[in-house]
Amino acid sequence: MADPRTRSLAQIWVGAATGLRVVPAIILGLFAGVMVDRLGGRIILLWERVWLLVLAVLTAVVVVSGVVTLWQIVVLSVVSSAVLAVGLPATQTLVLSYVPKESLQAGNSVNMLTNSMARALGPLSGGFLIAGFGLGSPFLALVGLYVLALFFTFRLPRSEPAVATKTSAVRQIADGLKYIKSNPVLLRVMILAFSVIFNATFVPIIPVYARDRFDVGETGFGVMLAAWAIGQSVSALWIASKRDWTRKTPPILGSTVMFVVGVSTFALSTNFPLTLFALAIVGAAIPIWASSTITLLQTQSDPAMIGRVMSVFSLSLQSMMFGWFLGAWIGTLIGNAQMILIGTAIYAAINVGLILTSPQLRKL
After folding, report:
1. So what's the pLDDT on residue 162?
2. How far apart are CA 152 and CA 184, in angstroms?
3. DSSP label at residue 301
4. How many Å apart are CA 145 and CA 228, to the nearest integer?
5. Each residue of 12-52: pLDDT tens digit?
6. How far apart are CA 314 and CA 25, in angstroms?
7. Cα dist. 103→25, 32, 158, 308 in Å?
């Protein structure tokens, strides 16, 4: 059995490999919003796919060569996060270009559904590939998937820039931040979006529970992630099959309750099937919260500012990685279950407080 100090160090490394990714994401994400407004989302998304393909190739080479180390994983994780930070606002802006306004929430949900399916199939297929063909096989498969992603992105209809200007990128970033600050609804929704820092603290504990609490190994860890992702997929598909909700804040509050119940059950459960069910509930809450929040931001924003608004929102998604780092670190100090319950309580307080104390937001 591994030494407890070694396990704690490994838990912190897991958090670092994800949490430190937020640093370059903050810098590049803001510039990405400006570039989306200037050039259109399709061009930015194409470049993101190219760089993700390059990073996938590098990762495959490192793993297949057998010289992979923890610092290499951290570096590749940080760089890939920077690239994803560029693509996220482009993806969310393109939904506005290709989906009618009355179907916007359904479009955002479908956009999330593809990610959920990847999370559902990825861990399971990765585990089977490792078992059958070795550690490097999932990364080689990832290279092929990014080639396909680049091909289909290239075939997307051209998107028009939202604004043409000779103003410096730094000035445009400042203008975008001032615009968000001056709009009470956007500001509250954006603060609400950053509450994901606290709801993400439980994520690095999933592999810890798989190893220490349930002793189910890599395959069991993959099943745990798949349960979470299947919950997301079912929820996202359900949203996509419905007409857009007239009001968005009641679903946000409802999903917050679902999340609290699911994560609290996960934190305290010692039964593996119950844990899988709890993770599925957590997964089901995410598309309801995210699609409602994204649609609120899209519909309440000036079209000339949409890239910059969504780039700040994308930073909130990237900030989840900081939550992962906090969860891994604080969990070693006060206990994983205690840390999860505290983080979940803070997340719920922010969501409920921001909505219930704003008459204007409660009407939306």
Report:
1. 58
2. 38
3. S
4. 22
5. 555 555 555 666 667 777 777 778 777 777 788 888 888 88
6. 9
7. 30, 26, 20, 22
**Which residue in this structure is represented by tokens 């995410």?**
286
Measure the CA–CA gap between 188 and 169, rounded to whole angstroms.
25
100 or 238: which leads in pLDDT = 238
CA–CA separation, 260 and 110 (whole Å): 24
- How would DSSP label each residue in 175-219? HHHHHHHH-HHHHHHHHHHTTHHHHTTTTTHHHHIIIIIS--HHH
User: Which residue do the tokens 């179907």 mark?
Assistant: 103
- Write the CB contacts of 32 (distance below 8 Å, at least 6 apart in sequence): 44, 85, 86, 87, 88, 89, 90, 307, 311, 314
Closest by CA position to 306, among listed 74, 7, 40: 40
Q: Where are the domains of the chain?
A: 4-159+176-362
Give the tens place of pLDDT for each residue, 104-147: 787 777 777 776 666 556 666 766 676 666 666 777 777 888 88
Length of the chain equals 364
Burial tier of 215 (Cβ tally within 10 Å: 0-12, 13-18, 19+)? exposed
With 70 as the cut, is the pLDDT of residue 212 above it?
A: yes
- CA dist 282 → 12, 239, 264, 299 (Å): 23, 16, 10, 26
SS3 90: helix
pLDDT grade, residue 207 (50/70/90)? confident
Q: Which two tokens stand for residue 177?
A: 């931040």
Q: Which of 181, 171, 182 lies closest to 30, judged by CA?
A: 171
Whole-angstrom Cα distance, residue 78 to residue 73? Answer: 9
Residue 52 neighbours by CB distance under 10 Å: 21
Task: Report yes or no: 343 and 29 within 8 Å, Cβ to Cβ.
Answer: no
Contact status, residue 321 vs residue 77, Cβ threshold 8 Å: no
The DSSP 8-state label assigned to residue 21 in this structure reads T
Residue matched to tokens 């989306």: 36
What CA–CA distance (Å, rounded) separates 135 from 218?
12
- Residue-wise pLDDT for 234-257, tens only, equals 888 888 887 777 888 999 999 999
- The fourth-level CATH superfamily of domain 4-159+176-362 is MFS general substrate transporter like domains (1.20.1250.20)
Q: How far apart are CA 18 and CA 319, in angstroms?
A: 10
